[in-house]
Design a protein that fits this description.
Chain lengths: ~250, ~280
């Protein structure tokens, strides 16, 4: 909090990637991920080329490699699963450093790891160059069901309010000598969670009342319209199209 | 903290007050903004909150609605823009009866500022929040932009247009909440406990803003000095009926009335010793 309205994932900047309208970036990132996922896993060189493409985007967006790599760490829990695959998968086995590994499992692990990493990297780039607010406008422009956009937007608006409420409840508990230290205290925590839920639910009703009072009748009015020129679209879509070329080569070679 | 500069100066010559201050309850000659007659309402669980409420407010008046907790103040407020309906009696806003047929128009004309600004401000940025009402009514483009700017300007918050509401102080949020309603250019502004949770400076700033507005105000409050400061006329709602309607100073000085309806002045506050600026 505190620092203006930027989310902590967002890196303020004035690069050409930052300047792109949000819906073009969303479309480009999504198309890129779809192309990557549809690439045959045996075409290892193709994934290297995808990584190069993302590196070019990162350079254009002036997102330092260090930042990008650090944010990729979010992937680790999923990677752990991929690492298990060579050990547990069925089929033909090979010996690597004295360990018996499944060939299928190795390919599976590589598949998850490569595609996952590229997907996460694309999302990290998107999040670093696009403000949350803009992402919502982009989703709205891309005709995502309005209800989903509204839910996401309320989540962003009230996330901090509810976290703050949670913090006040914790302080109130601790001020009365309660310190959650073991299973025996879970009951109290569960009751706090229940109380928080009810409070949030009631707040929801009050917010709805305030919305209705200002003429809300089921759909959010469009206040900011985002538009993109043909040039902006082609600049944004350069990434998925380059990736598509690589993908097609991967299938034919 | 920025005050809505300059505006405070012209307050002493304000156009509110004088015109209607003497006419406690009377709205003769002045067009009527709000007319409530015979309003009664019981909640579905059988609890009856209002037992026939009658009053009228003339255009440009600033009226306080006083009453103890549980008097039915909030229930009454929710009738003014048709959130609650179905009981007996009628509510008329600038000649328009509150009912299904004119609901959109009524909601535009009656601007309610709720007590908790976090409930009122639900959009990601201040600007979008202020734009919500007019945009819902179909306004867009430069006209909308202008309306938003004007409303924020009136409450001295124009510099904060692109901030998210949760990064503002409580007083600032309350002022933005007022702007969200002003942007709809309402016939009547209804404020629910406007001074609650405000520090003295924010409280005074809000008072300055309210005085500078050229709009009818109905202010629901416990804060009796605030009512005296801002509203020449007051209504006392107790147990679902209006038990008193008159000059705020007179009502607050009536110890018998105050005591009967659980209205207590802060320690050391004597309404008779207060001389109003204007």
């Amino acid at each position: 909090m505190g620092a203006g309205h930027a989310h902590r994932l967002y890196r303020h900047g004035h690069s050409p990637v930052h300047a792109l309208p949000p819906h073009t970036k969303l479309a480009a990132a999504f198309a890129f991920v779809v192309v990557v996922v549809s690439t045959p896993r045996e075409a290892m060189w193709a994934f290297a080329l995808y990584a190069v493409l993302l590196a070019v985007v990162a350079r254009q967006a002036r997102v330092p490699a260090g930042v990008l790599l650090k944010r990729l760490l979010i992937e680790i829990p999923f990677v752990a699963f991929a690492v298990l695959m060579p050990f547990v998968a069925e089929g033909e086995r090979v010996d690597v450093l004295g360990l018996s590994l499944s060939v299928n499992g190795l390919w599976g692990a590589w598949n998850v790891l490569a595609k996952g990493t590229l997907g996460v990297a694309a999302s990290v780039l998107l999040a670093s160059t696009t403000e949350l607010r803009e992402l919502l406008l982009g989703l709205q422009r891309l005709k995502l069901p309005p209800l989903l956009v509204q839910i996401a937007s309320f989540m962003i608006r009230y996330g901090d309010v509810i976290t703050d409420e949670m913090r006040r409840m914790r302080i109130a508990r601790e001020s009365r000598g309660f310190e959650a230290s073991g299973v025996r205290h879970w009951g109290v925590l569960a009751k706090s969670a229940g109380a928080l839920f009810i409070r949030s639910y009631e707040r929801g009703e009050r917010v709805h009342l305030a919305m209705v009072s200002r003429g809300y009748a089921g759909s959010m009015p469009v206040i900011d319209e985002v538009t993109a020129s043909r040039a902006q679209w082609s600049y944004a879509l350069a990434l998925p199209f380059a990736a598509l070329a690589v993908c097609l080569l991967g299938w034919t070679l | 903290m920025e005050t809505p500069g300059g505006k405070t100066g012209e307050l002493s010559a304000g156009k509110h007050g004088e015109a209607t201050a003497g006419a406690a309850g009377g709205t003769d000659g002045v067009p009527v903004s709000l007319e409530v007659s015979g309003l009664a309402f019981a909640y579905p669980d059988g609890h009856q909150a209002l037992f026939g409420v009658d009053f009228g407010i003339g255009r440009g008046e600033r009226v306080a609605l006083l009453g103890p907790n549980g008097a039915g103040k909030t229930t009454l407020v929710l009738h003014l823009n048709g959130i609650l309906t179905g009981g007996a009696g009628t509510v008329t806003v600038a000649g328009l009866p509150v009912g299904k047929r004119h609901m959109a128009e009524i909601r535009r004309k009656v601007g309610i500022v709720f007590q908790d600004p976090d409930d009122q401000l639900f959009m990601p940025t201040v600007r979008e929040d202020v734009a919500f009402g007019p945009a819902a009514a179909g306004m867009k483009g430069a006209e909308l932009e202008e309306r938003v700017h004007a409303a924020l300007e009136q409450v001295g918050m124009a510099a904060f247009a692109d901030r998210p509401p949760h990064h503002l102080s409580f007083g600032q949020r309350r002022r933005v909440a007022v702007a969200t309603v002003l942007a709809m250019e309402p016939e009547i502004l209804v404020l629910d406990e406007p001074s609650s949770n405000l520090d003295p400076a924010s409280r005074r700033e809000l008072a300055d803003i309210l005085r500078s507005l050229d709009v009818t105000v109905l202010m629901v409050t416990h804060d009796l000095p605030y009512a005296l400061e801002l509203c020449p006329r007051s209504l006392v709602l107790s147990d679902g009926v209006i038990v008193a309607d008159g000059r705020t100073g007179d009502l607050l000085s009536d110890e018998e009335l105050m005591r009967t309806h659980r209205l207590e002045l802060p320690f050391g506050f004597d309404p008779r010793s207060v001389t109003m600026g204007a």
